[in-house]
Amino acid sequence: EGVGPQEYTLIKMKVLEPLSDALNSGSGGCIYLVAATLRPETMYGQTNCWIHPTIKYVAFKVCSGDVFICTRRAAKNMCYQGFTEENGKFEALAELVGETLMGLKLKSPLSVYSAIYALPMLTIKEEKGSGIVTSVPSDSPDDYAALRDLKNKKALREKYCIKDEMVLPFQPVEIIDVPGYGRLSAQKACDDLKIQSQNDREKLAEAKEKVYLKGFYEGTMVIGEHRGKPVQEVKKLIQRIMIEKKEAMIYME
Ligand code: A2H
User: Is any atom of ligand 1 closer than 6 Å to the C-beta of 108?
Assistant: First the structure.
């Protein structure tokens, strides 16, 4: 990290239910939670969105008339990357504490699930990406561990008013075959290292390192129009298709 600018794919997760009046009146556009990912080719396997309960997010209008929700820091970066009408400027329509976004129903591009929900993740960093993370438990050890925590711990769901049906029906999806790890590489890495929870930071870092590079260099897609092809070959193609359909954008930091 920290060598040069990092390119993220910003995934537009459409909010499917009314939010506050401040956000719904006016422009007639849609509202999106925007998640920064390094793995656009994994978006078929999205099972939920991660929000940090105590981080403050802002809602602001972008050129298209739509409203994006992310951290203030990310909104500031985006306004210098042509996201807003006036370069270098954005107007916060509302400030929203993560907790108030929990349980929001969303539609996210490529996901095999037609609707997914915003759920709490306690290890999200405010100073990275958009502060909103899309969850792919098949291929991301962090996502796998955090989703398993929510499934196993009723008290954790209750604490954030998460209904069972927002969590329990969502299973990891087989999207990439990784030699030696199979089609649910994050689950295998977490099992091998006996990772107990999302707070097992050291082991999770090890698991991430193991499956991340192997998934990229040796993985083969087993879903979607590019099934059978190497991840390396299709990553950019899948990113480009989502961008052309206005379901994603490039975000740098
Ligand atoms: B990745 P890097 Cl399938 N806090 O997307 C914590 N984690 C964050 C974050 C934040 N504020 N913003 C983004 N991320 C996650 C997919 C994925 C990711 C897979 C496998 C590995 C993986 C689905 N989640 O990342 O420090 C996002 O999760 C492993 C590194 O900028 C994003 O990509 O390198 C990645 O971390 C960005 O991490």
Answer: no
Element at 207 (helix H, strand E): helix 201-218
Q: Evaluate: CB of 42 within 6 angstroms of ligand 1.
A: yes
Asked if the structure places residue 12 within a domain, the reply is: yes
Q: Could you tell me the two tokens for 72?
A: 């203030």
Token duo for residue 192: 């091998």
Tokens describing residue 158: 């209750």
DSSP β-bridge partners for residue 43: none
Establish whether this prediction's ipTM goes over 0.90: yes
In a domain, 90, yes or no: yes
Domain count, the chain: 1
* Cα 162 to averaged position of ligand 1 atoms, centre (Å): 23
Residues whose CB falls within 8 Å of the CB of residue 206, separated by 6 or more in sequence, listed in order: 193
Give the Cα separation of 126 and 138 in Å (integer).
24
Q: Which residues of 142-159 are buried (b: 16+ CB within 10 A; e: fewer)?
A: bbbbbbbbbbeeeebbee
Q: Ligand 1 mean position to 215 CA, how many Å?
A: 14
Q: Are 6 and 81 in contact (CB under 8 A)?
A: no
Range of the domain at 230: 7-252
**pLDDT at residue 240 tops 80:** yes
pLDDT, one tens digit per residue, over 39-71 is 999 999 999 999 999 999 999 999 999 999 999
